[in-house]
Fold these 2 entries.
Entry 1:
Amino acid sequence: MDSEQHQGRNFGTSFAAKRTAIMDAFELDGAAEAVRVLVPTGYGLNCEAESAAAFELLGAQVEQVHVSDLLAEPGRLSQASILVFIGGFSFGDHVASGRVFANRMRFGLGRELARFIADGGLAVGMCNGFQVMTKLGLLPGALGEASPEALAPQQVSIVGNDRLGYRNAWVRMRVDPESPCVWTRGVESIESPSRHGEGKLVFASDAVRDQLFAERRVPVRYVDAQGEATSEWPANPNGSPDGAAGLCDASGRVFGLMPHPEAFLYPENHPRWLARRFGAEARPAFGLGLQLYANGVRAATQT
Amino acid sequence: MSVHRLEIEVRPGLVDPLAEATRKRLETWLELSPAALQTRKSYHLDLGLSDEEAQRVLEALVDPVAEIGALGMLPDPERDGEAPWILSVGFLPGVTDAIGHSVRRAASDCLRRSLDGHAYSSTLYLVWGVDGPTLEAAARELLYNPLIERHSLVQAPRSVDLRVPRAGSERAPGVEPVALREADDATLERISKEGMLALTLAEMQAIAAHFRGLGRDPTDAELECLAQTWSEHCKHKIFASPIRYVDPQGDETLIERGLFRSYVRAATEAVADARKQSGADPEGEDFLVSVFHDNAGVVRFTEADHLVYKVETHNSPSALDPYGGAMTGIVGVNRDSFGTGLGADLLSNVWGYCFGDPRGPLRDRSGLPPGLMHPRRIRDGVHHGVIDGGNQSGIPYSRGFELFDGRYAGKPLVYCGTVAAMPVTVPGPPPERAPRPTEDKPIAVGDRVVMVGGRIGKDGIHGATFSSVELDESSPVQAVQIGDPITQKMMWDFLSEARDRGLYSGMTDNGAGGLSSSVGEMAEATNGARIDLAKAPLKYPGLAPWEILISEAQERMTVAVPPAQLDAFLELAARREVEASVLGEFTDDGRFRVDYGALEVCDLSLEFMHDGVPLPTLEARWSPAQARVVDAGAAEAALAQLDCGAALLDLLARPNLSANDDRARSYDHEVKGLSVIKPLLGVEGDVPSTATAMRVRHGRDEGVILGEGIHPWLSDIDTEAMARACVDEGVRRVLCAGARLDRIAALDNFCWPDPIQSAKTPDGHHKLAQLVRCCQGLYDACLAYGVPLISGKDSMKNDAFLGGVKISIPPTLLVSVMGQTPDVGACLDLEPRAAGDRVYLLGATALELGASELERARADAGSPLPPTDLPRTDLEACWARYGAFAGARDAGLIRSAHVCARGGLALSLAHMVLASGLGLELELDTDGLSAAAQLFAESTGRIVLTCAEAQGEAVEAALGAHGLQRLGRVVEAPTLRVSTGAGSGSGSGTVIDTTLAALRGRFGEALHGL
């Protein structure tokens, strides 16, 4: 706005000031500024702005690259330490969510993706990104020995919500503290908007499912008002079994979930922010969705 | 070429959600309960594949975990010895099949080669336990729309159906002259009507005269091009023509410059002048950046961004194909805001609908003429269309409303709007890349005309002219287009990149009138353009040149590309899989010239195209069918008998005021991660917010605040009062949420029944007079509030003639308001914060129940209220009040604020309880006005606010001079209790005593499950 003194109000802060405050709050230093984050875009994906902002606010270097350019130069993948599969409607989710996009990645970039993960790369996906990651076999990843040369076969799918149709409402997830997932470390619970029509996890077999739960590779679960994992709507928006909201691979460095923590970068994103701020002393520096990405950046600095 | 068919279904044992939803709809809408129901996806690959290749494509498409599939057919199992009926629903030839496009892409990816031909998608429903004829009838009512979809119904066992809806013909393109020069008046009228040209006799005569002067007849394409350009939809003739107006006092005036120049544009110019006089804006930083001449209005926001806003209507197509028509509405207005200046970044959508009552059973068509869809089905389709269009485009919605009245059963109103952020500058062309203002379009002679995006088909031919006439049995099917949001998203991702590389000099949307309008308009920049239609990519062969010229096929922009940037532009387009075709170039010869290869198709002077339309003087006379005589005494006597608590619960259960979160939550409102005050709020997330707020860019705290006002029922009494009420409510809403007083802009959308006197419209003079008074009210309100009208749209033929029945909408003005805040963290909503806080009403209430929701409820219940006045809106008093309010708000004195709007104070109080889960303990002073009148009158200019007990005195000091009334306090117990004071004239007593649970029960009643 044109005047700092406008009506005598205290102003919100600039991007740079926000970043400084956020990096301080998460105790991130110059190492974070060396973390390179690759955000593939295009083909109907649409969460690039908030996904990029999440990592920029944490000080990392973010590069948005159109998938067609990435397919043309697959080598760009190896320069990144974090790969982000963003939300949206890749190819309209025609046929099935993420299917056409995942095929294109598998046929054009499958080997490079397998190598990136084998080399300790971090990856995170939200919503359509998570759907794509399961259809690529990146999640839950190998169930036995992983191959550095090829993607694992698809073992999990994400299908239409039990209640047909897209719905936008906030959900609460509980984090499994025993999970190997590096992205959820130190976080007890997460609130985020859920915005999808296809979010129900389906496992190739009961054995696959049992193994994933036994290995604590279901790091986030939808919980009800009492904090218990639930498959009941609306606390669980899609009927996913045992409240499973996301998955990680065996290393914990590859993580995906249906809800959108990248849409909770600012305290004012929360639907009850005015009620929460009432009576509070200070304005929080960030929205709690940022915690997950801070964990990812920190893990990247420790590689 | 061999065709392959694929069928895919959910793996046995997993839920088939489409089947579940279909079963529920058959049950609740048609009371039909099949024994079992299952769905499949089916794709026809007309791609010249070998069997082995088709098998590989199938494997790439089927989910190995969740689905099974087959080449040809999956088995159709019997259940209880009964074979299923199989209903197949696909698209008609030529209708956009976005899923089919994706399947072709997927096939090409998996086979790693490019493919010719098409893929076609359809849905199969396998139904057991319903006989064929019943299923046939149910399918027609619920599962397909014969205007755009084909179906087949067979009982198993069936044979493999390999038929595909190939479109097109081998017809050679040709150009035909139309013998206009010698035609008599009857012939001219016949040519216009039969050709769906929507040209009046005077216009046809003007065209004939023009061509007599040229010594030749027009070509079919020239006549079509003029019909599009001169259509009411594109030319706004009713707003441009002089009007002889007789006002309610019987005085006659001549509005020589027409309504748009005299009132709409004049209001904005007057506001701009006043800002200049008062020095409101620093030098070179005018609030108004670009108004009236581009696709959307542009205002100043920060040093980095302007804001763009446009609201459109898409009524006629939505009446015929609610899903496709409404989707085209939203993705079309996206293109308008996107295509403003050199391009803006889309930020948020708004929607609003006016429908007939959706609550009657689907088979109860009483009062509905043949040929009209049931309002429930229209509503269902419209919602789905805008949901899919908005969600798939990745644009969150901010505002959404629904209103219901039987008069919208003929043509529903479907408002769709889009806010965008426009960078103040973008890079110029390489290599200098000097920043240039984004709001300008520096198109130069020699720049190429490039069409970008989708291909051209027969879809959407005559959309502009069709929406310029009433709906009847002969309404053209082709006028309906279906959007393909993904093709469009890929197009604007590409164009945004091209913008930031400085690769083009201008663009505009291909909407109404197609290329004839887009190139015709852009040609005004250089005074000429020449294009070759043979270079335009078609969806299928066999289109005549005139059809190519005016097709409104979706997802297309026309872009001006300087020759030096052409290679880079086309190379980037190819890399992004966006089709871009060079059709011609901009010239300066004053002509719009169109060829098809060697054929001359069109050669029109731009001057005649844009200024040749005759504008006869129209007649307007205020002559209401019956005068309304206000009877205050009788009304107060009736109101004194009213059970206010019961009346409030009844209002909450009326569709106009009931919760619609069931539907609204299917629209994404949070993608982009910028939302602050959401469209739905409160502990249960079901209360519509007063206004919505969102950040505009990540990492910054400035925000945009949106609200609106729409009061169609006021037009039954007085359109001038309606316009004032609409502006007032929209402005009041954004101020409640925290908008700056000095940065408010508004948009006007007029939807009117035909206001031109004719045999079909014997009351045209009055309807036009209603329009005049509406414009006068709008002008006065905008001036008083200092609010410019930065963009607008009119839709003037909202009537349906079917089976001898005419249904006309009530004159309806929508005022959409856009405010700004320097800090979203200072925004407020309507929810009281804490028990003990004080509750005040700011602004006086009068005995204004005319056209109120209570008045309609009483009439529906068979005990009408005696007539009272309608809200008049004291503009000067309101504006002074809002200034004081904004001061108190910015001083941090106020904790929540909500407007009194439809349903009056009572509804606002109910919202506050529903949102917070807290109670209100209030007392009304009934010295002047009965409690019922105070609770249900819809007087404008009022705000209910809460503040901390400790701030009470300061609030009273700040606002006491502006009609501040202390109502009571917020309490912990979740009850709404309103009583009249001991000192009141009518004695003390409780008038409302109801619980949160009771309020929520009724609030969720009317629209739930529809």
Entry 2:
Amino acid sequence: MNHTDSHNPDGYEKDEAFDALLKPVFKGKKLTDEINTAEDKWNLLPAFLKVKGLVKQHLDSFNYFVDVDLKKIIKANEVILSDVDPEFYLKYIDIRVGYKHNGNKAIMTPPHECRLRDMTYSTPIFVDIEYTRGRSIVLHRDVEIGRMPIMLRSNKCILDGAAENDMAKLNECPLDPGGYFIVNGTEKVILVQEQLSKNRIIVEADEKKNIVQASVTSSTHERKSKTYVVTKNDKIYLKHNSIAEEVPIVVVLKACGVVSDLEIMQLVCGNDSSYQDIFAVNLEEAAELKIYTQQQALEFIGTKVKTVRRQKLSILQEGIEAIATTVIAHLTVEALDFREKALYIAMMTRRVVMAIDNPKMVDDRDYVGNKRLELAGQLMSLLFEDLFKKFNNDFKANIDKVLKKPNRAEMYDALLTINVHSNNITTGMNRAISTGNWSLKRFKMERAGVTHVLSRLSYISALGMMTRISSQFEKSRKVSGPRALQPSQFGMLCTSDTPEGEACGLVKNLALMTHITTDDEEEPIKRICYLLGVEDISLIDSASIHLNYGVYLNGTIIGTTRFPTKFVSQFRCLRRTGRASEFISIYTNTHQKAVHIATDGGRICRPLIIVSNGQSSVTADHLRSLLAGKLQFDDFLKLGLVEYLDVNEENDSFIALYEKDLSENITHLEIESFTVLGAVAGLIPYPHHNQSPRNTYQCAMGKQAIGAIAYNQFKRIDTLLYLMIYPQQPMVKTKTIELIDYDKLPAGQNATVAVMSYSGYDIEDALVLNKASIDRGFGRCETRRKNTTVLKRYPNHTQDIIGGMRVDENGEPIWQHQALGPDGLGEVGMKVESGQIYVNKSVPTNASDSILTQTQAQYKETPVVYRAPEPSHIDQVMMSVSDNDQALIKVLLRQNRRPELGDKFSSRHGQKGVCGIIVKQEDLPFNDQGVVPDIIMNPHGFPSRMTVGKMIELISGKAGVLNGTLEYGTCFGGSKLEDMSKILVDNGFNYSGKDMLYSGITGECLQAYIFFGPIYYQKLKHMVLDKMHARARGPRAVLTRQPTEGRSRDGGLRLGEMERDCVIAYGASQLLLERLMLSSDAFEVDVCEKCGLMGYSGWCTSCKTAEHVVKMTIPYAAKLLFQELLAMNIAPRLKLGDVFEA
Amino acid sequence: MSNGLFVTDEDGDTEMNGNGKLDKKLQSSEILKEDDPVVNEIPINLTVGPCPLHVLQFPNKPKRLAKNMDEHPPIAGVRYKDESSVWEIDIPLNTQVFFDKEKAAESWNNVDVQTLKGVAVSNDMLQYAGVMKQGQLYLIPVEKVAQMRPYFRYIDSHQQVKKDEDAKAKPANPTAKKNQVITMSVKSSSEANQNRLGGALLAHKVADEEEFKPLEWKDDTFESFVEEVTSEKSTVPLKPMDNDAVYLSKLF
């Protein structure tokens, strides 16, 4: 609770990340410039991102897992006992990841080497063990029980705290956010999962069916279960999966020890007469069942339990067990007193009664405050605990096996066998991360698709993936609620960034300035509450519980308070002074008369400036110290200037957007309004001027833009990489662009655009491209494709080899081997054409022979042949050894591509288009200065799309060009259009951005002023070269003898059902015949006119004659059908007749 | 550039009403703070009672009984289980009114007392019972708190009798031999000893097997108790070690 590290402003060490801020001119501001809180409070945002980063949630969660959660897991499973020897025990004392007890760090293979060599980036897990060896107790330190995959840039990663030059030495990109794992050489991300919050009551009502239910999903380390309190025929029952039928709620409460009807009524209804009227029936029901005592009630429940147990329990014991551990499993009762449980069930019942009384008192499942995000750390911890339990079981079985032997010769040392099982943990973790299949035995849970390969299409796509949140909802269900934009996601989840189509609204992205909490201790918070005057719930009599406000800690009532407002404000005061963790949320719910405190993990929260008496706590002085590096973001928290609010607490506050809106009521001030958007949507200039779906489209397209992906992009050997040759940072930036360093790794170029019609090849959003611009490098990109070859070793000591090159009579290499070097591998820089070989591998023919009968090894050539329509160049060749000692060869093939007809481009406003025509520069229009556009865009793109932001981008960009500045198009801010127009006018241009253009063909000036200026254009990964496909003849499928499908198999182009319908409608029967049979699977069969069955070679097998056999052509598929029908005892007989009668 | 080319932003939204519900309460509490002068200073003594103090709560007693000691029903017997901290109290019933003697005689073994039962929960919150005497406050730490609720032993035992009769009526199952539980002195672990009871079940088993310790209920001992508790011997006067400023600085 105590933050011990006090701050010394003078002895402050120099912070490199703030260097840029300390330069005389930073982002257009001089150090001596006046500081304006309203304008400059946004500087808190870079300060926040510096400590938190965009993927901090992943790192925090992983750090929490390796540092805290692992120790808890060890503690929960610390002892291994033997069933055989009562003297034996083994106890885990401590667990550490990556370092030994003396603090020595284990040596790790650097991440980039793991990527290249297809290895797993991991570090050993060490445990300290105390156990009995013979008579003595031994303590053994630093026993390795397996290897843990390490999240990049977590505190166990070697990149943690590394400076830029250290990163460069390790071939890492300093801008790479980390937060992913490297398993077998591939980068894997564990996506954030969104779930309904655990251990909280959710009340729902179905007004049509007249059902109200309160449900709670209990989740502990041991088990997961769901308990319901439901209405049925206006009576209230408790429902649970392991209890056969619904139990009347009064019986349950009596089983919990609340036997008096009066007390039940007090617990559930308090003294509210309308609640009492609703609830009274339930008391009668218990009386009808003749259940009066606790024992009767427990036995009643005991008879209904349907759990299968190894151990036989009496009915009463079953009842006790059901109430104590099964129902509301997260409150496990260890002793005699069930009051805590009775209270919880009574509270659930009360919520149901309240919802019956007032149907508005229900909860919203889609409300972000009722959601929790599950991160990598939590998922890893579930997995690790499962594997660790299995490890312990195996270990114990092994120990028992040895100890069972009656007369052992020597003293048994349990540790000698521990290493046998350590592989289980390592492979278990690796397999789960690399396949994405999370299978947990103890929850009987199977989850697929938890991990994804990190998309390295562009820097933004990687970043976008790290902030992505996937929902547990099925995509097929047709409910709109979970997909809809929730008002409560303001500032927490990006309002624009969601995919279109089936996953729309289910996959979300974090906003720019968010934090996801990790679990916090409950106990100290409880103490704080009691110290602040909360009356302990266990001492309060049932009659007075509902008189005051209840105080709930993580959904469980811990007491009541008479002065909720005072209590809440005092608690907040403690939090602001750092006495309680800053991520604990507290809020009042007046409808439920409750104060809720949350310490659990997975809540999204965001920082806001605290406002008191209409004054912002953050003053110009603070900002000055921030800029001077004397204060950090965390200091703002400690000083109580800024605090984190989660969604629930946000709803209990008045938050002003701007400083001018501050008044007495306001409790908080937004740091920056553009943080409602996420990292990806933050690229859009002037998004607040666009029609909203356009921003969503851009979020999808920004991830497909080709650009620079990382500083180490040329050192990477990825399966497929697209890189832009001359990327530029946009003329119109946003603050987000600077914060996420998009300006350092951009994906696009500033094109001079003329919005006009030209040549007619610009319909349907097609673009006209300037040939000279392309020659100068506009839109030029390269693709880099990897090929991996493994040289296998075989059991009989033979192995794959690389042959040299073959030469012709002149000593020149033959054409296929032209790209090879003398070592049989492609030479770097050589061009490979289709059909040429770049790895000349040979495989032994006798690999399966045994070693004994071995003769001279025979080899068969299995070269790697390049097959593609366009040649490539060999960019890199790498030879190394992977984890399993087999030689690994990776060849990187590069292709340089200039834009061509059909390549896809898009601006940053969801305006995509393909290149329709490439025009010589001399034919294009030009303005007074002789500037010729790079792109001509058809004005019809604007009216229906309403992307006004694009127009403003053009004007700001043009002003920036004239002024020599980079302009800002930040959301809800940015350079003002008026100022931009002023710059245009000052430079002799029209305020509206329109220029007079002259036709390049006639030289005459155009009859209209043309909207003309720079717009940032992205080249998207969809290129004609990868997609164009045609076939005259080619391969056919074996079964049907029809042409194969798909470009990759050189397949035919399908004439589908609808196309067929058209041909029928035209009556073009011969075309139909040709397309459907002759060009596809025409087959000549022998048909017997007598029996109507098919024969062969002019012979009818059923008639045993050749007399009536005639030849005819039918589709092979038809022949197949007839034969399949015959196989199932149906004889299709063909009756032939002449089309043209004689 | 205000040449009317561009529409300027509309003025901000109208201000919300200045009397939010939240604020009113805040203000009132602030006023309270200011108008809350110190009336009296009371010395505090921490005392160690002659025996551990248990607080028994009676949630089913009517509120109006509280002040008037005479109207509280007399207590016939008290029992306590030490290990499981279970209290039982017998209160004689008025068998003259609202009492079905026949039914009591028939199946309830002539019951004439109401039994209250409660599990004492140890008082983690460090609560104290206070006694004011001669302008001084004496605090006695409360060890355990129990809530006393009705316990209908006669119903349960009647049902047990019925059940036994039913079981006798049925032919006894000869294969069902009584299992003997052999306990070993090995440290228990959830994994190794699957057949051991745990948690609440164990607690119930222990409580069922434990014998009640009969205690005597004594009324009218309050005065002497107060005397004993407030004696010089057993009290430690509490004195502040620091002044207000130091205390406050420690808090914040």
